[in-house]
Amino acid sequence: MPHRDPSDAEVDAAFADLVAQFDREFDDHRQLPPPGPTPQAPPPQAPPPSGSDAADGPEVIEGVVHESGWRVHHAPDDEDLDAVDDGMDIPPLPPMRLSPIAMAGITLILGAGVITVLLVLGVRLPSWTGWVGFLAVMGGTALLLSRLPRHRDDDTDDGARV
Questions:
Q1: What mean pLDDT is predicted for residues 15-33?
Q2: Where is the composition biased (Acidic residues) (predicted)?
Q3: How far apart are CA 67 and CA 58, in angstroms?
């Protein structure tokens, strides 16, 4: 049986069904009150005497009721975080080490940049410094390009992980 493309009406009906299903799934979330303190908080009360069970009720701070219960999240102290060892210690990155040849190439290019900045600022330099700057840029660029790898590993992995 040959495959036929759905008509525009069928596509629209399928899309409307998806939207209606989405609305049904998330209706409960839309009807929940926004999170935050209770809008009509009772006035603050004096703390109960020590040893009484009344301390287990909601805590009132500056007229706002802060419920305490099994769903309340208390941020851990720094001591608690230090005590946790999850085995996920990430070692620091090793220091970047450039070869002496790469450092020479970078120095040539930066030296040419210094000469250019001095000339732009109007510092009078001998005429040969322009040639030195030009040759430094060309030599530094050639030096750095010659240090690039000629071939890459034939790796078909694009690096994406799911």
A1: 73
A2: 77-88
A3: 5
